[in-house]
Design goal:
single chain, alpha/beta, about 15% strand
Length: about 280
């Protein structure tokens, strides 16, 4: 284990981000971490000589640049960048207003873009580094009632896949993490938005089923966050880390079911769908 690596973690005042930061510090890594309010972060993590808590607005690229510059100034380099900040948005697609959808993209997608864009100059200069972007199983399979959130995570997944090819010549790795359900506060108010101003009767049964499922799963998720973040740390220490990291038994089940479904569609429509070239 190379615990000389410098980690930069966003969204670290709660959930998986907080678990990761605490585990890293306990194992001797140097960690810079961000949150919307530095006081929440300091209170959640506590004092530590190898910890740099930073207040950062993901939507402000200059603010992101300042946070990364402060990290490099404090620790001298940058090794692992973890884009963990984000929140869930659920509800039938037709009921979610444009402004609500755009805000979810602002945080989950463009916030991630801002961090990656500002981290890359240092990583290219070093000719090394690892960018870890938190996607979701919803970034591989679109669950009903989560179209906007799925769209944000599909965007993160696609960007990660293309970025990995862009930066490979510079010795930089990229991993898109797709966790299943882990027992954090992600399904609780503050991490999950159900904002809508346009309730439609036709979707009442979908809303009721979703609300019931979320309440049932909240704080009953099967995944252990510490075990999940232990896997993430091992991935960051690997010489050949995966581009796609499905995390949890349920994540693997979702992935295998999706792959099987795609393969069935390919086989069923291959002859007709591949008859489109010029003669």
């Amino acid at each position: 284990m190379n615990n000389n690596k410098i980690w930069f973690v966003t969204g670290a005042s709660k959930g998986m981000g907080l678990t990761l930061v605490k585990m890293l510090l306990k194992r001797g890594y140097k960690v810079a971490a961000t949150s919307r309010t530095v006081e929440d972060l300091q209170q959640a993590v506590g004092g530590h000589t190898d910890f740099l808590p930073l207040q950062m607005n993901l939507s402000d690229e200059n603010d992101v640049k300042k946070a990364l510059s402060a990290t490099i100034e404090r620790f001298g380099r940058l090794d692992v960048v973890v884009n963990n900040a984000g929140y869930g948005q659920v509800g039938p697609f037709e009921e979610i207003p444009d402004a609500v959808a755009r805000q979810n993209f602002e945080v989950n997608v463009f916030g991630t873009f801002n961090v990656v864009r500002q981290a890359l100059p240092q990583l290219r200069k070093q000719r090394s580094g690892h960018i870890i972007n938190f996607s979701s199983t919803a970034g591989f399979y679109g669950f009903g009632g989560s179209a906007i959130y799925a769209a944000t995570k599909f965007a993160v997944d696609g960007m990660s896949e293309a970025l990995a090819q862009d930066v490979l010549p510079f010795g930089i790795h990229v991993t898109a993490v797709k966790p299943g359900y882990f027992r954090t506060n992600f399904l609780s108010p503050g991490s999950l938005s159900t904002s809508t101003t346009n309730l439609i009767e036709d979707y009442a049964s979908l809303r009721e089923a979703q609300e019931s499922g979320l309440k049932q799963y909240d704080q009953n998720q099967p995944g252990n966050p510490e075990k999940g973040m232990d896997v993430l740390i091992q991935v960051a220490e690997s010489e050949h880390p995966p581009l796609h990291l499905f995390l949890g038994k349920d994540a693997f089940e979702v992935a295998n079911n999706k792959i099987e479904s795609v393969q069935k569609d390919l086989a069923a429509w291959e002859v007709l769908a591949t008859s489109t070239d010029f003669d």
